[in-house]
Amino acid sequence: MDKGNSTLKAEILPTHTAALFAAAVKRSAELLRAGELVALPTETVYGLAANAFDARAVARIFTAKGRPAHNPIIVHVADLEMARRCVTEWPAAAGDLARAFWPGPLTLVLPRSKEIPDIVTAGGSTVGVRWPSHPFIQAVIRECGFPLAAPSANPSNRISPTNAEHVRQGLGDKIALIIDGGQSQVGIESTVLDLTVSPPRVLRPGMIHEESLQAALPECGVWNSEGGIGAGEHGPLRSPGNLPRHYSPRAKLEMLAWRDERELGTQVARSKFQPAKTHIIAHTVIPSAGAWGRVSVIPHDAEAFARAIYAELHRGDELGAELIVVEALPEANEWQAIRDRLKRAAAV
Ligand code: TXA
Ligand code: MG
User: Residue 309 is part of a domain; what is its CATH number?
Assistant: First the structure.
């Protein structure tokens, strides 16, 4: 931990009873209406929210996160009518996907309406819209009556927060209010799907994977979004979350496979890191705790793994790990988004 509590000024409000939940909604809406930022839970990761119609409020998000101005922000809504207000076109595919996956971890990129200020879309002609399923953010959006622009509530390029304490560690000295809504259920960021191109294109994989999207859009046939994604030369980045290095812990991260502990030891010995400064995240061949700084076990199940992985990476940083080794992941589809995040976290 690199910050003393004295510098972390954010107030943290709990939500675990109906009365606390209602009070936290009220306080959040007050601040948001006044153009302030609030960090709040969603089912994917915690978001740093501002009134999406208020350019000055959204500018504060960029400052707090140290986010580059060319990276557009997702707009969160709490019903279809609000979603349609943010865009100029609502194609049949959007309706089909909303019916299948909203509220939930899917962001649809569509032509943006005039109500959405330039700063939200990084000057681009499209906007990413998502109807999250977490009851807290839904209640706040309804109370406010306007949509919320919200990126993940972490300093730019760091791991997304999956609980309120992660937010406090990363941004506690930059924002006034953090809402504690417990552990994020999904654990990694939403799938981002561009509906302005044909066939649609996944800009960022997520736990709703491409095959599920295709099944909901039979008229689009089968498509494949692999490859060619990245920064455009002009205008906003197509999806900056897809830059090679992103979502990184401070520690170096490596993905390794091992048949037994000896083989793991041999591989780590080739690196310059001491076993005591090395954290192992395993799901199948579990090493004994002895020599390693820490051994964490996440169930060999993609949903459970997604829910837990960011918290494990945050933990490694908090405990001063220099190397985090994650056991290589299965090839199956449902692991694709997790593989994507860890590959980027491991890129140097
Ligand atoms: O699950 C999530 O999506 C979380 C929660 C808080 O909703 N939000 C999130 O936001 O991950 P952020 O800003 O950390 O990542 C948003 C990603 C970025 O890669 C951004 O470039 C992309 O979505 N994005 C946003 N608007 C876009 C647009 N109009 N066109 C293309 N990509 C867009
Ligand atoms: Mg982010």
Answer: 3.40.50
Residue 266 CA, distance from chain mean position: 34
Range of the domain at 275: 252-346
Pocket lining for ligand 1, CB < 6 angstroms: 42, 44-45, 47, 71-74, 105, 107, 109, 121, 124, 126-128, 130, 132, 150-152, 189-190, 192, 203-204, 237-241
- Whether residue 137 is contained in a domain is answered as yes
Q: In this predicted model, what pLDDT tens digit does every residue of 301-316 receive, in sequence order?
A: 999 999 999 999 999 9
Residues 210 and 266 in one domain: no
- What are 52-91's pLDDT values in tens digits? 999 999 999 999 999 999 999 999 999 999 999 999 999 9
* Alpha helices (H) along the chain: 18-33, 55-65, 80-85, 92-101, 118-121, 135-144, 164-171, 210-216, 261-269, 302-318, 336-346
pTM of structure: 0.93
* 289 in the same domain as 158: no
Question: How many other CB atoms are found less than 10 A from the CB of residue 328?
Answer: 15
